[in-house]
Amino acid sequence: MTDLPFRPFPDDAAVREIGQRLLDRSLPRADWTHEAHLGAATWLVRERPDLDLDAQIAAIISSYNLAVGGVNDADSGYHDTITRTYLAGVRAHVATRDPDEPLADSVNALLASPAGRRDWPLRFYSRDLLLSAAARRAFVEPDLAPLPRPC
User: Which domain of life, per UniProt (predicted)?
Assistant: First the structure.
């Protein structure tokens, strides 16, 4: 049993499986956890340069949500601003890591960092703005601090 505030990935294969099952929409809904979101995002950034994440991430996650019986509306499902905020954090994290580092080690380090916390977007956004329907539908600029940029 672990006393970590997150469930670490045991190995690279586990991270890749989450990412691939997101893409092929076969990941069980119950497995689409916070850790899975950040693991899949790290895998996509590190190992899927063939995907234009800025152009495709909304469709990837929205279509996954629908495939597992979810919805994407003003109250639930895909949230563009939160997704793009974490994507900025993942990109900044990946830019600071050794590119030869095992994928699971990189994801677990991200999850253990401030950027891996569930409340991390609130460093950049007021709660009202972040949780607004407008922020769910489309990316809105932060109102508290600028998002991190890869070095």
Answer: Bacteria
